[in-house]
Amino acid sequence: MANVFAFAETRGGELRKAGLEAVTAARQLADATGGGEVHAMVAGAPGVGGVAQKLAEVGADVVLVVEHPALARYDAETLTRTVAERVKSGGYRAAVFSATAQGKELAPRVAARLGAPLAADATSVSAEGGAIVVKHPMYTGKVIGTLSIAASPALVSVRLGAITPAPNAKAGRVEAVQAVGDPAQSKARVVELREGSKGKVDLGEAPVIVSGGRGLKAAENFKLVEDLADAFGNAAVGATRAVTDEGWRPHSEQIGQTGRVVSPQLYVAVGISGAIQHLAGMRTAKTIVAINKDKDAPIFKIADYGIVGDVFDVVPALTQAVRAA
Ligand code: FAD
Predict the structure, then answer these.
(1) Could you give the residue ranges of the DSSP H alpha helices within 144-258?
(2) Which atom from ligand 1 is nearest to the alpha carbon of 297?
(3) 146 is in an annotated binding site
(4) Whose alpha carbon is nearest atom 9 of ligand 1?
(5) Which residue's CA is the closest to the ligand 1 atom numbered 36?
(6) Would you tell me the crossing angle of helices 311-324 and 222-232 to the nearest 10 degrees?
(7) Where are the beta strands (DSSP E) in the chain?
(8) What is the pLDDT of residue 186?
(9) 173-186 tens-digit pLDDT
(10) pTM to 2 decimals?
């Protein structure tokens, strides 16, 4: 019976939703491969181990805590060494990461260090005949590929929002793990961190995203999108590249092939045509609502609900309805 490793992301000592999703995916893999243990690693400044209970609640049997003052910020070199060492010595069948900006750096580094295969950006994980089976979008999301990995350990990164954390309480025994090497000696150091839009819901973690396109005509009309997002209460604002290229919204809000990849519960596309490069970033959303005045706009092909109409009429009415609900 083989165990499965998960790297659970934290930020500022707080567990990120991505971390819970990675541990949930690891739990699914452990159960599918014979019911082994899930060992979840968290790394950060002293005190980060305080998140252990939350990881136990979604299926971690053991929480590996790496605490070091210099790990208050993400440090790729130290984490690569520490994770790789643990995955190697732990004899894990699989190791799960998050396909976040951090995970997209960490997972390939660990894979290269171990000479192990990596299936990136998974939307589901399972096992069949001893192999780890991963589904992931390919060709900007036009097809869903199924990868079967016989090699061990199989490294997998899971797309944000694709795996829903489920209660599955385990012991969550805490084990302290030493960082491998001195983080203070890392060749690359983070010297400054500029916070993005503070207090707003993070695009990657938001259950609802209201996203605007060129159909809004001008930067100031994004007030409509912001108002609808506010009405939901837990929504983030996204945008197309046409919009970020115009400078109407910051690049950090761009969704798509060259922007963020998101999988919220609800994605509301406002005045967006549905170009393939935009769909690459949002087509795995659970429910898609599109508002466009052109009934032939490609976005309607993937929308669950479509409203053919002018955004300047439809969005204020929708905002009012959501507020009243
Ligand atoms: P448009 O395509 O101009 O669509 C505007 C839509 O608004 C139209 O469908 C129109 O009918 C509708 N509309 C207009 N007025 C109204 C109104 N009053 N009421 C209702 N509807 C209205 N794009 C991304 O989004 N993300 C990416 O990451 C990305 N990466 C790219 C990478 C490459 C290499 C390339 C070549 C392109 C990339 N693009 C990306 C650009 C992409 O091809 C499209 O140009 C872009 O997504 C279009 O944005 P849009 O839908 O806002 O604008």
Answers:
(1) 222-232, 241-246
(2) 9
(3) no
(4) 273
(5) 277
(6) 20
(7) 4-7, 10-11, 14-15, 38-44, 62-67, 94-98, 118-122, 124-128, 131-138, 143-149, 154-158, 173-176, 208-212, 235-239, 266-270, 287-292, 305-308
(8) 87
(9) 999 999 999 888 88
(10) 0.85
Residue type, 27: R
Give the single-character DSSP code of 254. B
Ligand 1 mean position to 105 CA, how many Å?
Answer: 29
| Position 199 pLDDT exceeds 80 | no
pLDDT band of residue 298 (cuts 50, 70, 90) is very high
Q: Determine the distance separating the centroid of ligand 1 and the alpha carbon of 307, expressed in angstroms.
A: 17
Assess whether the previous peptide bond of 153 is cis (omega < 30° from 0). yes
- Stated as kind and residue range, the H or E segment containing 200 is none
pLDDT computed for residue 205 by the predictor: 86
Residue 209 labelled as part of a binding site: no
- Annotated ligand binding at 241? The verdict is yes
Q: Which residues line the pocket of ligand 1, CB cutoff 6 A?
A: 213-215, 240-243, 254-259, 271-273, 275, 277-278, 281, 292-294, 297, 310-312
Decide: 257 and 277 in contact? Cβ < 8 Å.
yes
Distance in angstroms (rounded) separating the CA atoms of residues 108 and 127: 22
* Amino acid sitting at position 84: A
Distance in angstroms (rounded) separating the CA atoms of residues 97 and 26: 9
Name which residue sits closest to atom 8 of ligand 1, judged by CA.
273
Yes or no: say if 86 and 146 are a contact pair by the CB < 8 Å rule: no
**Complex-level ipTM beyond the 0.95 threshold:** yes
In the numeric block, the tokens 């669950």 are attached to 304
Integer distance in angstroms from the first to the last C-alpha of the chain? 50
CA 79–ligand 1 middle distance (angstroms): 38
d(CA 145, CA 147): 6
Nearest-CA residue for atom 14 of ligand 1:
215
Instruction: Report pLDDT digits (tens) over 26-78.
Output: 999 999 999 999 999 999 999 999 999 999 999 999 999 999 999 998 999 99
